[in-house]
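Q: Convert this sequence to structure tokens.
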Amino acid sequence: MPEHLQAAVESMTRLNRHPSHIVRETAHAMTDVTGYSILGHAYEMAAAGNVSIRFTASAVPLLPGALDYAFKGITTGGGARNRNYLDGKVEISPEVTEETQHILYDPQTSGGLLFAMPPAAISEAESAFERAGLPLWRVGEVHEGRGVTVVP
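A:
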């Protein structure tokens, strides 16, 4: 659908430079989400930081039509490779649909930023993003432990 394509193009052409400048002083870790998927990049961050990252699947923003395409079985080979590589490294609740899982493992051409920051800095970051007119989603939490988990 043309509106889905337009939304994807707008998302992929949105630069991460300004958002990265907003959080660079307070973020403990930050990466742009690209071909390794949001789960792959989270796994790298969790492993490097010796922590656990817990995502709430319903909080992850989706491009318009993404779930519809996944329900129709329109997925990517890169997503399957990401899933295979992360097997045993990412734990996903059985309540998270297969279609949502496809999206979480899907490689991105130019995704947004994934960053972790201390709880005390969240409110100021939210305000700064709002003042700049930039989207921001809180999609998970960092905990003690290891690995990546996804809950509904």
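The chain has a mean pLDDT of 93.
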